[in-house]
Protein: Threonine synthase
Amino acid sequence: MRYISTRGNAPALSFEDTMLTGLARDGGLYVPETIPTLSHGDIAAMAGLSYEEIAFRVMRPFVGDTFTDEVFADLIAKAYAGFGHDARAPLVQLAPNHFLLELFHGPTLAFKDFAMQLIGQMFQEALSRSGKRVTIVGATSGDTGSAAIEAFRGLSNVDVFILYPHGRVSEVQRRQMTTPTEDNVHALALTGDFDDCQARLKDMFNDFDFRDGVRLAGVNSINWARVLAQVVYYFSSAISLGAPHRPISFTVPTGNFGDIFAGYIAKRMGLPIEKLVVATNQNDILHRCLMTGGYVTDSVIPSISPSMDIQVSSNFERALFDAYDRDGAAVSQLMAELKAGGFHVSQGALETLRDIYASGRVSEEDTSAMITDALARTGEVLCPHSAIGVKVAEDHQGATPMVTLATAHPAKFPAAVKDATGHHPALPPRMADLFDRPERVTRVENDLTDLEELIRDRISVGTHQ
Ligand SMILES: *Cc1c(COP(=O)(O)O)cnc(C)c1O
Structure:
């Protein structure tokens, strides 16, 4: 299995190198050269299996010879052992034909743990084999950072630096990033918004001296291994609801397009997914693009669903690559236009996208109202992101069973949940002391040179090197 860049101008890589690299050297994102498929019989045979067994069968064809069967099965087992639910990704019924997929039972209470816990295991295995060390730099709107720190804290071959927008993450998210005490963890609060964090991260990858000098690795959702790990719960949930014998639709609260793109991969692998519905908050570039074909950036307006406060949706590039029949030159052209403010998707590509994806946008008021309403109608306490999903799903509900992804635990966003329900959602007991632990964070400006210097300094001191 080899991986190629969406911009058509970087070397093809193995799974291992794709995972350790993150962004391609031509600025593109890695995707599998061909997408393996599972037959109707293969999928039917997964009924009743554990999450871990389904994970093995779904991901195995993508991993190639990076890990043996035995090692890969062991990494999967370790990745999900720390989850607070035996089903890992349990389904809850909301209405006659509507189900909630709870993806918040991992150690940092958001779906990011599904990929990050596995990536932590895979990095450790690959790096300990080669004796190399890497510097992981991540940009976060809150949940990726906490999940990455949790997955990499204390690992001997890795330093992890997380850039988050100062003042724009929830207190629980911030504390999950600033309270770990391990020396290899570095939380950086940047003056700016998430798009600034993501832009500086991309700049670091495009600065080859820096990139090679610190052995930069990325774990943002541009990392293919992240997308891959998320393909699994589309299979596990759809199979629980009767796939492959009947089709299922999914609604996905979306920011960087990583989670929903994993659903597209599941569909391409043969899972009968009828529609993938993009749910956005007021930062609605994806919804506008699917409506009008115009992908035009606007400034980010902070919302009560901060993990979706994004205007440049990185993984959309992967969707465009396929919609443009894998024409890397065409994608490069669009991305160059994006730097100048935006682009128009061609009519053919737009039709392809609309065949796969539908979309909806939810205002702040309607998000809050949905949290109140869902509690009254179903007894479920939703986080604001999940509430956006449920609202858009209801607008798109048809005869096909609908699964909405619940992307975070309500206790991660207590202010919005308390406003809507009158109750402060409690953290699970294992993290009840989060507010008592001391915080450790470095304030940084939105400046590439300063950031690179800080990272170089930090990794050259102490026990590393
Ligand atoms: C990251 C995140 C999202 C958006 O996921 P993408 O893969 O970026 O589309 C939605 N909700 C929550 C809670 C998140 O942490």
Observations:
- The two ends are 32 Å apart (CA to CA).
